[in-house]
Amino acid sequence: MANRGGNSASRAGGSAGTGSNRTCQFKLVLLGESAVGKSSLVLRFVKGQFHEYQESTIGAAFLTQTVCLDDATVKFEIWDTAGQERYHSLAPMYYRGAQAAIVVYDITNQDSFQKAKNWVKELQRQASPNIVMALAGNKADMANKRTVEYEEAQAYAEDNALLFMETSAKTSMNVNDIFMAIAKKLPIGPPPGQPQDTVDVNQPAQQQKSGTCCK
Amino acid sequence: MGSEHPPVEEHDESKKLKVQIQEKDLLCINGCGFYGTPQWGNRCSKCWRSHLALMKKHHDFTKNRTLLSFDNFQERRKLSTESRSMTIKKIFKPSAMLGEGQSQTMTPSSSMSPVTTPTRVRSLSPESKASREAFSEYLSKNLPFLLVQDIVKTVKYATNKIHELNAISPDELSDLVQNFYQGVSEKLNHNPVFTSGKLKVRTQDVMEEIEKFLCVSCYSRLFCASSDEEVADVSLQDRIRSLHWVTAGFLETKLDFTNVSKCKTTNCQVRDKLDEAISQIIDMNGHRTAEKKLRCLIDCCHAIFEALKESVAPTSADEFLPVLIYVILKGNPPLIQSNVKFISRFALASRVMSGESGYFFTNLSCALQFVQEMNHESLRMNQDEFEAYTSGHLAPPLSLMNCACNQAIGSMERSLAEVGELLKKQQQLLVKIEELDVKMTKENEEMAVQFANFLKVNPSQKYLQMKEEREKVEQETKLACSLSDSWSSSKLSSSRNSEDEPKATEQATSTLLQ
Fold first, then answer.
1. Per residue in B180-218, pLDDT tens?
2. How many domains does the structure of chain A reveal?
3. Which residues touch B117 (CB under 8 Å, ≥6 apart)?
4. Which one of B1, B177, B251, B408 has the fewest CB atoms closer than 10 angstroms to its CB?
5. Do you know which SUPFAM superfamilies this protein is assigned to (chain A) (predicted)?
C-alpha cells in the first residue's frame, strides 16, 4: 500500500472525465540559460513564493500546478532543465513528449536572449510539432537595467508565433498570466484517455496486439 | 602340477623382467639420486610431493581462468545479484518450487526458458511466488471474479510468451510488452466494471500491479538479457572508475561541504545526505520491479535536494543535475545502464514519461549520457589535462572543493575541528577551575571570619547553656577551692584529695565544651 502511495503524483496524471469539467495533464518544460530565473518563475506560479537568494525549502526542479479553465482543468507538470551550456546536448531528453515549453531569458542580459532564440530554433526543429511555445522575458522588475528591448522581443515572438510576455517572479507580474495563456492554447480536445502525444501511434499497435496476445 | 607350473614360470619371468627394469629405473625419474616408487610415478617421496603441488597449482589456475573468463563472470554476477536478496528464503524453503511447481503460471514458463539454469529457477521461485500471491490477492480483493480470471489468464499467457520468445531482441520484446500493457489497459478502460465507477481502484492501479508481477516473474528474461548490454555496463563502470578524479568542484556543484555549523544542530550533514543518495542509487539494482527501482531513484533525488538545501543552494535543475552526476560518479552503481534500459523498456509508460518518477528518470538518463560523453569541453579544461587525469598520469590539483569531497580529508578535518574544540573546552575548564579555586579559598576565609563574628554576636542556645554550666562549674570549683584552701591549712592529709577535686571538675567542663 505504501509503495503505491508514492506514485500518487503519476497516477493523478490520468484524466478523469467527470461531467463537463475534464482534467487534462500536460508536460511543460522550462528552457533557458542558467540564472535567468526559471525556477523562481515556477516557484512563484506554484507556491506563490519568491526568495531573493533562492533559499527555497523544496525541490523546485519538478512541480505540478493545476489551472482551471472554463470547461476543463489543466494540470501542468513542470520540468525544469539545467541551463548550463555543457548540458545543452541533453535537452532533447527533457522536451521529448512535452506539450508546452517556456523559453526564459533575462531582460537585463542580452546573451540570455540570444540563447533563448537558439532554444526556440531547436524546439521548432526537434520538439513535437504541435508544442505550445512561450517566450518569457524575466526580471521585468529590473527594467532600469534592461538590455533587451520589449519591442525587439515582441517582434521576434510574432515572427515565430510564440506567446510572449515580460514577467517578474519577484513582483509576480504576468506569471500566472503566461501559464494561463499556455493552458488556453493547449489542445483540451482528446476525450478521456491517456493525454499523451503518442496516443495515435499506439492505437493501431493496440489493435494488432489484441489479436496476438489477449485472447 | 602341470597346469600350475606355467603360471608360476610366467610369474617368475615377470618378476625377473621387473627386476631388470627396476635395476634401470629404480632411481627417481627426476634424477635426484633417491629411489622412486611406481605408485608415485617413479618419483621419490620428496619429488612426488612437489609434483603434486605443481599439479594442483596448474589445476587451480585453469579452474580460475575458466571462472574468471568474461561470460562466466557475468553469469555469476547476474546470479549473485539476483539471488542476493533471497538467500535466506532459499535456505528455509529449498523445495518450494517442487511443491507448487505445477500449480501456477510462473514456474512452468520459467523452466521453459533456456536462459535460466536449474539453480537459478530455484532461487527465482520464492520471490516470484510471493509476488504471484500478492498479485492474485490484490486482484481478488478489488475486482469481480470473472474479470480476475480474465486478467490472470491474459497475464499468464504474456509471461509464458515472454519466456518462449528467446530469439527476439530486447527492443522488440519491449515493444511487445508495451503493446501488451496498452492492450490490457484499453480493454480494462472499456470494461463496464470500470466505466460504471463502482470500483475503488482505477485501471492505472491494476496496470501497476500487472507491471509489478510481470517484472518479477520474467526478470531473468527481461533484465540485462543480452551479453552486449553487460559489456556496455562493464565498460561504463570502467569509464566511471577512470573519472574518479572528477569531483564536485569540477562539476561546479553548489554543494557546501564546509557548512558544519548548521549541521551540528540539525544532525544531518551534506555528506551524509550524499551518502544516502549514493546508497539509494546503488540499491536500484537490488530490486526487481520497475516501481521499486524508480522509488530508489526518487529517494536518491530527494536526498540530493536535501543536500542542496543543507548547502543553502537553490534547488533548481541547474544545481540538481550536476549533483546527480557527481553521485553517479561517486557511487558507480552496478549495472546502472541495464537498470535504466529495463525501466525504459518494461515499465509502464506513465511512470517513465510523467510524474516525479518520470522527471527523475529522465535526469538519470541525461546524467548517464553526460558521463559517457564527458570530455575536456564539458569540464572546461584543455584536452591534455583531461586525458592525463583520466589515464592517471597526473593528479588533479587540490582545490578547496576537491578536498572537501574527499572522504578521508573530510573526516580528518572533522576530527581536527573536534580536537580543537575539545582543547578549547579544556582550557576553559582549566580557567574555571582556577577561578573556582581562588573563589573557594577567598570564601573560605570570609566564611571563617563571618562565622567567628556571628558566633560572637549570636551565640547559640546550646553554647549559652554550656557557657552557663561552665561558669557554674567554675564557681563551684572556686568555692571548692576556697573551701579546700581553708581546709588545707588545717589538714594536710586531705590536701591531696582537695587537689584532685578541681582537676576532675576541669575535666568535666572540657568534656562539656567539646
1. 999 998 888 888 777 776 777 888 888 988 998 888 888
2. 1
3. none
4. B1
5. P-loop containing nucleoside triphosphate hydrolases
Judge whether A198 lies within some domain. no
Confidence of residue B45 (pLDDT cuts 50, 70, 90): confident
- Whether B243 maps to a domain, the answer reads yes
One domain for residues B199 and B61: no
Q: Which of A174, A169, A194, A172 is nearest to A24 (CA)?
A: A194
- Parallel, antiparallel, or unpaired: how do β-strands A163-166 and A132-138 relate? parallel
pTM here is: 0.65
From chain A residues 136-175, the ones with a CB under 8 A of any chain B CB are none
Distance between CA B370 and CA B374 in Å, rounded? 6
Instruction: Tell me if residue B325 falls in helix, strand or coil.
Output: helix
User: Which of B205, B295, B321 is nearest residue A82 as measured by Cβ atoms?
Assistant: B321
How far is it, in rounded angstroms, from Cα B43 to Cα B51? 9
Q: Is residue B320 part of a domain?
A: yes
Whether residue A79 is contained in a domain is answered as yes
CATH number for position B207: 1.10.246.120
CA B403-B407-B408 angle, 5° bins = 85
CATH assignment at residue B32: 1.20.5.4770
DSSP B397: P
Query: Same domain for B341 and B199?
Result: no
The pLDDT tens digits for B110-161 are 344 444 444 444 445 677 788 888 888 888 888 888 888 888 888 888 888 8
Q: Residue B130's closest CA among B192, B194, B85?
A: B85
Q: Cβ of B350 under 8 Å from any chain A Cβ? A: yes
All three cell numbers of B385: 589535462
The domain boundary, picked from B405, B426, B451, lies at B405
CATH of the domain at A117: 3.40.50.300
B:169-228 residues touching chain A, CB 8 A cutoff = 175-176, 179-180, 182-184, 186-187, 189, 202-205, 208
Within a domain: B410: no
Q: Using DSSP bridges, classify how beta strands A21-31 and A72-80 pair: parallel, antiparallel or unpaired.
A: parallel
- The answer to whether position A158 is within a domain reads yes
Q: Do A210 and B356 touch (CB under 8 A)?
A: no
Q: Are B271 and B386 members of one domain?
A: yes
| Contacts with B, A 171-200, CB within 8 Å | 193-194, 196, 198
Q: Do A213 and B180 touch (CB under 8 A)?
A: yes
pLDDT digits (tens, 9 = 90+) for B264-316: 444 457 778 888 999 999 999 999 899 999 999 999 999 988 888 877 777 78
**Contact by Cβ (8 Å): B47, B30:** yes
Cα dihedral across residues B112, B115, B119, B122: positive or negative: negative
Domain span holding position B274: 228-405
Instruction: Based on the fold, state whether residues B257 and B381 are members of the same structural domain.
Output: yes
At residue A135 the predicted structure's pLDDT band, cuts being 50, 70 and 90, is: very high
Q: Is residue B100 assigned to a domain?
A: no
Q: Residue A88 has what DSSP assignment?
A: G
B157 shares a domain with B130 = yes
Which ipTM was obtained for this model? 0.79
Residue A215 lies in a domain: no
For chain B, what is the domain count? 3
